[in-house]
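Person: Show me a sequence?

Helper:
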Amino acid sequence: MAVRRIPAGRVASYGEVAEFAGRPGAARAVGNIMRDCHRPDIPCHRVIAAGGHLGGYGGDESLKRALLLAEGVTVVGKRVKNHEALAAFHMGRRPSQTRTAQAARIRAAAPKRKGKEKRKTPPRS
């Protein structure tokens, strides 16, 4: 299970877990599974909502917060502070497959504009 691969002091979003498990777009399903999972060997508290929000944890958000704090994760209000830096895994991708690398390839393939050309817009009528 992908959640077991999240080390202590790290977090992953429901969407990241879904993508890592090979089901991109199944973040809600991951949340439902995490809600019903009561096994102590699966660190469900390390799975958070998008944007660093804590998410549910079966209705006991204070327990989720306490478990994350015990692992050294900083929680401010209902969000994990600096959650991007605490990402447990980058969907198991090699650096060449990360979103940053993909964006760089797209920018490199885009036609280059010379200087600061103004875009021509049609006159208003």
Remarks:
- DSSP finds four helices and four strands in the chain.
- The chain has one domain: 2-98.
